[in-house]
Amino acid sequence: MAGKMFSVFGGGYLRIAPIFLIQWGVSKPQKIGLPTVIYVHPHEVDLSLSQTSA
User: Cβ(30)–Cβ(36) under 8 Å?
Assistant: First the structure.
């Protein structure tokens, strides 16, 4: 990890992964002082964006 960026989860994997695995993936870089970025799509937090009219 020293000086390297790596991806733990993204997209659908973030939704289906067990929480303990996500917590592990986030805590590892934080323990050595690296920043952590978690990206979610807007439609994942605002359900009105994912609705379509029929």
Answer: yes
Residue 1 contacts residue 28 (beta carbons within 8 Å): yes
Please identify which residue in the block is written with the tokens 């996500």: 22
Residues 6 or more apart whose CB falls under 8 angstroms from that of 29 comprise: 1, 35, 36
First to last CA, the chain: 48
> Which residues in the chain show pLDDT less than 70?
1-6, 47, 49-54
Q: Whole-prediction pTM value?
A: 0.57
Question: What's the CA gap between 3 and 5, in Å, rounded?
Answer: 7
